[in-house]
Design a protein that fits this description.
The structure holds two protein chains of two kinds. Chain A is α/β, with parallel strands linked by helices. Helices cover about 45% and strands about 10% of the residues of chain A. Chain A has an eight-stranded parallel sheet. In chain A, helix 11 links the parallel strand 6 and strand 7 (about 250-255). In chain A, helix 10 packs parallel to helix 11 (about 230-245). Chain A is globular. In chain B, about 45% of the residues are buried. Chain B contains eleven helices and ten strands. The chains are: A alpha/beta, B alpha/beta.
Chain lengths: ~325, ~325
Amino acid sequence: MPSTAPALPLADVTVSDAALRRFLHGLPGVDAVGLESRAAALGTRSIKTTAKSYAIDLAISMIDLTTLEGSDTPGKVRSLCAKGAAPDPSDRSVPAVAAICVYSDMVREAKEALRGTGIAVASVATAFPAGRAARSVKLADTREAVAAGADEVDMVIDRGAFLSGRYLQVFEEITAVKAACGEAHLKVILENGELATYDAIRRASWLAMLAGADFIKTSTGKVAVNATPANTLLMLEAVRDFRATTGRQVGVKPAGGIRTAKDALKYLVLVNETAGDDWLDPAWFRFGASSLLNDLLMQRQKLTTGRYSGPDYVTVD
Amino acid sequence: MSDPMSDSMSDSMSDSMSDPMSDPTSEQPHTPERTDGSAMPKPEHATPLAVLKTYKLFIGGAFPRSESGRVYEVTDPQGNWLANAPLASRKDARDAVAAARKAFPRWSGATAYNRGQVLYRVAELLQGRRDQFRAEVAAAEGLSKAQARAAVEAAVDRWVWYAGWTDKVTQIAGSSNPVAGPYFNLSSPEPTGVVAVLAPQDSSLLGLVSVLAPVLAGGNTAVLVAGERTPLPALSLAEVLATSDVPAGVVNVLSGRTAELGPPLAAHQDVNAIDLTGAADPALAAELEATAAENLKRVRRPAVDAEDWTADPGTSRLLAFLETKTVWHPMGV
């Protein structure tokens, strides 16, 4: 029996694999055409001048500045931390990012570099990005990251178990990782690109939220399809409906493929129009990105100076 | 006067339909079938419906309309409508600069010999479409047939001339410098980067080629603002460039108001040089030069007197957009 969320109105749906399946398959089907056209329509909003300036600063403060490469070095992590703390060294009015996201063995390095800045360290864990490892390994990975000082843990779900219908196994894994996290916030990566259908994304979102996720995250950034406006919109609807049902608020983090300020602003419109402005806060909405920050900074420079900026005026990552 | 492009298209089509044996290289001009933009050609022996050409911008190898959706009327010197051209906005200029920046590493990194071959091929294709360009240049500038023919021939010639310079400019602009030490000291010209080119207002093809080709020959990428009243040859030149081997983004062509597109390009922090040849108004040229100083752009000022585009161009335009890089190398003895 899972120990979390006994007070939730939906506690009874997680008592058995059959009950969980009945609940998840009882969620309304997703109108794919309607979802995509709604996401596309919201992407056509024009945001100008002061609203744009506000949105750019908000987007910067929502970034989980990420480096998840096999070639990551302590030096690269340190320079990323420095950039996250002062994204534009020539303009101290630029807000800091929300978190620095690294592999678990780099957490100590990042924690050290970020001391005193108030920026969180997020660590991917549970055999990221595939998630194909024994549960003991995943839990050990999580504990290591938290012990090293991670404030947030980004776990991947076991897509193999999810797609073969073993929902309770996925549920129990998330609750186990949540327990291993202790005080650290848990973000659950659904890896939408591997879930194949919108219905599956909706089910996975509810499954993760039922299991105690603090955030649901679209993707690892390591597969062909990452965050899209449509699948993020779907997840925003899920967190909105989940709060309406249970009273608990869950955050959303699109990750991968968001590279331009224009894209980021479209996502903020989705948040505002779907989940509402309660979610327009770094505590409840994040962008998992690396190159996005430079484009936001160039747009910000354009707004402050009136001149188009260029890649010569931001860091090389 | 009717649209020169659709005339030449319908002419060649009716040629082949009515008399397949006619000499395709015949330079006998055909009388325009329409006297204004609205009247349709006479339906004699199934003449195909004339298709009016939509002139478009050329950005990153694609032919988009202006982001703003605007167009403006292009007329011949007598005020007769020729076509609508896109009226580019500063956002189109921004997109063009981004495309030029993206194309820069590959174009500047190509060997000079390769760049020469690519540019020579542009001249080949330009020559192949000379009938179209003659008609467009004649309409744009109000030239006689003979004058237009001479202008197009000179433009092809000019392009070939600059194509030949790509692998020779280092010999005249580079040097091996004597220094007091055991070092080789070598200076060589390198491309500056993204160059904004305000094309001349008075010469729609020859002048255009004379300012564009030297920028490309040096290994720069270009954002070209066509002459405001005569943009059609420039927009057709973009079609030649698109079908040649010039990589997408190396040349980007904008049509519109020079006074509207000049300032954002001069202020753009990612533009490395600007050629003000087309800034005919001295006040505008001075303003653009001052704006360009912000990020130390290379600036080529407009000529004080009207330029003679048929004169020997020399190498000044070529050298205006090259940076000298000097390397010290130990002799190893």
